[in-house]
Amino acid sequence: MLVHSRTGKWTTWGVFGLLFVPLFALPLLVILAASFAGHWSGAFPSGFTGEHYASAVRGDSLQALTTSLVTALSASVLALTVGTWAALAAAALKKRGRRVLDGLFMLPVAVPSVVVGLSVLVAFSKPPVILNGTSTIVILAHTILVTAFAYQSVSAAILRLDPVYEQAAASLGARPSYVLRRVKLPLLLPSLTAAAGLCFALSMGELSATMMLYPPDWTPLPVQIFAATDRGSLFTGAAVAVVLMGATLLVLFTVSRIRTRASFR
Amino acid sequence: MPRWVWALPPVLVLALVFLYPLALVVQQSFTPDSGGTSLSPYRTVFASDAFREALGTTVWLAVGATVGCLVLGFFLALVIAFVPFPGGKAVAKFIDVFLSFPSFLITLALLFIYGTVGMANGLWTGATGAASGPFQFLTTPWGVLLAEITFFTPFVMRPLLAAFSQLDTAQLEVASSLGAGPVRIVRRVILPEALPALAAGGSLVLVMCLNEFGIVLFTGAKGVTTLPMLVYSKAILESDYPAACVVAVVNVALSVGLYSIYRVVSRRVGA
């Protein structure tokens, strides 16, 4: 459309490939290659082995995987509940009230995650509520960080919702709670599952706030990867990173399956 | 019951777990370890070289990365949208997947590619027989800059691709049939349409770069300290909470200020 000549097109694609492949495709491939590498001291890895995976799904790393999954699942469920509730309540408000709620719930996006971690640490290390050193404090920080994204995607979905359905239901005498349960939430289901997938992926990869808070017996995968690379075990770190990416992708894929099935209803 | 009552429970939860802790951070930043309320933590922190350097590094890295992301993202999105090629859809899908991975994976990958014994240096020493390769920038701010541009460019590309899909391609055909070259079409037709998406994507990336921690932590360089890194090292490594809170307040003021501008801009352009 933009470039018509044959050579022009191929030049453009060539430049595109030269930028895209080393910047975006190579990093992920390299991590994958390194996770199988016995050693890497030249141009290419050598001595391929599955050893790093053996240690990545055992002991500490296995525990880190379950820790991450539990944390991400709890944080997503909590964030989705609070975020959906807030988005539904905001949609019922007038313009100004909605704007206030938008500002409040989107604020955690702007605040650095490290500061969210610090603030939770400062607030819940002293009475009345002491959570310092528990798994709850990690889940709490993750929930705060991902709620904004749940709120954002659910309120965008509510905006796109055709008000005709709920008006029809209400005109037939359905009470608000019935309309919410039988009309609005089912219509929002595809967006809710998409939001859940997003929250889950973000929580799985969360490092900044977690580094401020994690107790020794609750180390999620990103912390594990950092610990491995920090002590020089780059290949183990890469294998754990592949496990992290795989788990995230698997959940996102499952969620998108639910989503397409839900949209057929 | 008025409608705003339903908004109260989630707002109360947010206030308890997010706003109240933030307020405590501000309060702590005015409370030196010696007790009382004073500005002395601010004076100490503002006077320290480490803080000034971190502030400078954070700002120039964020601005540099944003400019890099905008230029690169604009070009890549332009090619995907207007010089279509087989597999372009898959590339766009790949960008979406890329967004769901954590940032520090990029730094981890760069260690294998440009690290002292990585691919690039390995190729170089293999080809020339030199003892060490020329790529030693990973532990400098340039390594962080490269990682941030790589990780955040997709955040610019997504709104751009959305904006480009709204653009009527007939406009391009008309401009082209009237004799406009590609550069002119990009400048006069596409760029004005893309400006809102560029502004929205750019300011979002700027805020996220100001707040980026994982990339800097994984770089592991003592020479590169940004504000979030300083918060971490003051609080966790030095247990100096008042100083950590001061740096946190400065960082929050910077990014929340910018984020408000982003919200205003994106609301005005309806992005």
UniProtKB/TrEMBL annotation, chain A:
Pfam short name (any one): BPD_transp_1
Cellular localization per UniProt: Cell inner membrane; Cell membrane
Family from the record: Belongs to the binding-protein-dependent transport system permease family.
Originating species: Streptomyces beijiangensis
Protein's name according to its UniProt entry: ABC transporter permease subunit
Main location: membrane
Keyword Membrane found: yes
UniProt keywords, alphabetically: Cell inner membrane, Cell membrane, Membrane, Transmembrane, Transmembrane helix, Transport
GO cellular component: plasma membrane
Transmembrane segments: 12-37, 69-93, 105-124, 130-151, 187-214, 234-255
Membrane topology: Multi-pass membrane protein
Protein's GO biological process: transmembrane transport
Keyword Membrane listed: yes
Residue span(s) of domain ABC transmembrane type-1: 65-255
InterPro entries, A to Z: MetI-like, MetI-like_sf
